[in-house]
Amino acid sequence: LAAFYVLNGAISIKSAHLAALTLSVGQGAAFLPDTDLQETNTGSAQASYLEFIVTPVGQRFEVPLQQPPAG
Q: Which residues contact 7 (CB under 8 A, 6 or more apart)?
């Protein structure tokens, strides 16, 4: 599980299975486990956000992708 909450600025989250999602201050989103994600800053100012990740025991916390998600 990955959950996001934007504190300042705006971010875009790309996922292999969903269209890109843009979040601004006060907005959040959650994604199911094993979802490839890429977060980028979409504004002209610095973005700050919280990311909460829950990973099952024995699984890797983060896995490098060969290429960005297509979303």
A: 25, 48, 49, 50
Cα(8)–Cα(31) distance, rounded to whole angstroms? 21
- Model confidence pLDDT, tens digit, residues 5-64: 999 999 999 987 788 999 999 999 999 888 889 999 998 999 999 999 988 888 777 767
Neighbour count for residue 13 (Cβ, 10 Å)? 23
The amino acid that residue 65 corresponds to is: L
Instruction: Give pLDDT, residue 63.
Output: 67
Could you tell me where the beta strands, DSSP code E, fall in the chain? Answer: 2-8, 10-15, 21-24, 28-31, 37-41, 48-53
Amino acid at 33: P
